[in-house]
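Write out the 3D structure for:
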Amino acid sequence: MASSRLSALLLLVVAALLLCTLVPSIAAEEDHLIDDLVEDDGNDLSSSFARLQPALLQRKLLGYDCPGRCKGRCRLAGAYKRCIQMCMICCKDCSCVPPGTYGNKWACPCYARMKNDKGTDKCP
């Protein structure tokens, strides 16, 4: 009985370590794919989005680094704390933050659709 619990615990630890090593590589792959989309000349956007879909699915399954992405998004903002606060709200709802410090909201449609009470963009 004790050895089966130990085996299960060991298997759980190994799985957690494997997951921890996969998440950064998936995030890096996603960044590369998004960079490709930004630099795309527009001739074949459908194939670019098709390449991005697996990364988006993995993001939903493995979680998303909202604090890191929002820090990058807001690094040049004049109202840094407010930018981070709003970005975190949007990121938690959408599991997505557009690349760069401004614009590029096409990369995160959910993020782009969020509006405040006044009807203006909620997300920085």
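Residues 22-26, 37-42 have pLDDT under 50 and may be disordered.
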